[in-house]
Amino acid sequence: MARFTLPRDLYHGKGSLETLKTLKGKKAIICVGGGSMKRFGFLDRAQKYLEEAGMEVKLFEGIESDPSVETVMRGAAVMQEFGPDWIIAIGGGSPIDAAKAMWIKYEYPNCTFEDMCKVFGIPELRKKAHFVAVSSTSGTATEVTAFSIITDYQKGIKYPIADFEITPDIAIVDPELAETMPKKLVAHTGMDALTHAIEAYVSTAHCDYTDPLAIHAIEMIQKDLVGSYNGDMEKRDAMHNAQCLAGMAFSNALLGIVHSMAHKTGAIFQDYGAHIIHGAANAMYLPKVIAYNAKNAEAAERYAVIADYMHLEGSTTEEKVAALIKFCRDMNDALNIPHCIKNYGADSYPTEQGFVPEEVFLERLPEIAKNAIADACTGSNPRQPSQEEMEKLLKCCYYDTEVDF
Ligand SMILES: NC(=O)c1ccc[n+]([C@@H]2O[C@H](COP(=O)([O-])OP(=O)(O)OC[C@H]3O[C@@H](n4cnc5c(N)ncnc54)[C@H](O)[C@@H]3O)[C@@H](O)[C@H]2O)c1
Ligand SMILES: [Zn+2]
C-alpha cells in the first residue's frame, strides 16, 4: 500500500493571496523571513486580509535563510503564548519550513528536535492550529510538501523533517509574489525544482500518481526557466506552477542522493565563508548523480524516458542519458551556476578557485559521505552507494570529473 497526500486546497493564479480573507478563525500568526515580503508589500496585504476575516494577527518576523533549530524553538514559544488557530507562513522555503517545525513544537511542547527528525514519526497535528503556506520562490514547493529542512549549526548539518502531518492545509501559489525574485534566486530555486522532478521520477517510490506530475514539471522547466531567469514574467509565472507540480511529485515519490549530498554539504564549509546554496548544490551534483544512477538499468531507462519527453537527441538509452546530462550542464551555464564545488565562488558564481580549499574538502570528505548516506533521501535513490562510492561521487562533484563507476 502507498499513500498520496496533498494540501486539502490549493489556490493559484494572480491575486490568490486574497484567499486569506476567507479563513475562519480567531487568531493568526504570520511567519516571514528577513524583509523581502515586507518590502514588496505582501506582508501588509496578508495582514490586512486576515484582519478583514476578523482575526487578531501577530507577526513573527526575521526567519533567516536555512533556518536554525533555535529559530524554530523561539517561534514555537511565541505561538505558545499567543495561541493562534491559524499559522500563515509567507516567503521562500526557509520561513515556511521553519513555521512547519514551529507548528509541531507548538502542538507538542515536549517534542524535541530529535523527536521531530524521526521520519514519518510526527504525532497528529491540527489540534491547535491549521497551516497556510504562501510561497514566494519557485523551487522548494514546500507549500505542498511533507518536508521541512532545519539546520543544526552546531553540527553544520541540515536535517529533513518528513511526515504528511506537516503537509499544509492550504497552499497559495500566487505568481505575483515570485515576480520580485532577483535573477540569482530564480536560477537556484529553478534548478532545485528541476532536481526535485528528476529525482522523483527515478525514485524507487515513484508511482502512477507521481510520474505525470514530475514529467509535466520537467517539460515546463525546460520551456520556461531560462526565460524566467532573463526576465520574462509570463515564464516566471509558469515556473511558479512548474515547481509546485514538482513538489507534488516528490512529496509523494521522495527524492534521491542529489538532495542527500546537498543537505550534507550546505552548511559544512561555512567556516570558510561558503554556504553552498541549496539549489546551486543540486545543480552541481545532479549531472554526476544521473551518471552514477544510470549504471542501474532501470534508472537509465527512466532517464531515457525523461529525455524523450524533452525531445533531446539520441537513439539508444546511453545516448539519451548523455543528452540529459548535457542538458543539465547547459542549464548551469545559462544560469551562471558553477559545475563543481572547487569553482563555487563569491555570490555562488563560477570562479577559478572557489571558497572551499581542496585540503579542507578532502579532510571532511569521509564524514560528509557518511552523513549523506545516512540522509533520509538516500533510501529512495535507485542505487545505494557504499561509503567508498559516495566519497568518489563527492570528489567528482568537487573537481568536476567523469563518473565512471
Ligand atoms: N521543505 C522542502 O520540501 C524543501 C525542499 C527543498 C529545499 N528546502 C529548503 O528551503 C530552503 C531554501 O528556500 P528558498 O530557496 O525558497 O530560499 P529562502 O527562503 O532561503 O530565501 C532566500 C532569500 O530570498 C529572499 N526572497 C524570497 N522570496 C523573494 C521574492 N519573491 N523576492 C525577493 N526576494 C525574495 C529571502 O528574503 C531570502 O533572503 C533551504 O533551507 C532548503 O534546504 C525545503
Ligand atoms: Zn530541494
Name the poorly predicted regions: none
Q: How would you characterize the largest beta sheet?
A: 6 strands, parallel
In CATH, the architecture of the largest domain is Up-down Bundle
Number of domains: 2
Order of helices and strands: EEHHEHEHHEEEEHHHHHHHHHH
Count up the helices: 15
Structural class: alpha/beta
Overall spatial form: globular
CATH class of the largest domain: Mainly Alpha
| Distance from first to last alpha carbon | 34 Å
Molecules bound to protein: nicotinamide-adenine-dinucleotide, zinc ion
Strands side by side in the biggest sheet:
1-8-5-4-2-3
Q: Radius of gyration, Cα only, in angstroms?
A: 20 Å
Percentage of helical residues? Answer: 40-55%
Q: List how many beta strands DSSP finds.
A: 8
Q: Which features characterize this protein?
A:
405 residues; alpha/beta; Rossmann fold; Dehydroquinate synthase-like, alpha domain; 6-stranded parallel sheet; two-stranded antiparallel sheet; 15 helices; 8 strands; 49% helix; 10% strand; globular; binds nicotinamide-adenine-dinucleotide; binds zinc ion
Structure description:
- The chain has 405 residues and is of the alpha/beta class.
- The protein has two domains: 170 residues, Rossmann fold (3-Layer(aba) Sandwich); 216 residues, Dehydroquinate synthase-like, alpha domain (Up-down Bundle), CATH 1.20.1090.
- Helices cover 49% and strands 10% of the residues.
- It has 15 helices and eight strands.
- The chain has a six-stranded parallel beta sheet, sandwiched between helices.
- Strand 6 and strand 7 form a beta hairpin.
- Helix 7 packs antiparallel against helix 8 and helix 14 packs across helix 15.
- The radius of gyration is 20 Å and the shape is globular.
- The relative contact order is 0.11.
- The model has no long low-confidence stretch (mean pLDDT 96).
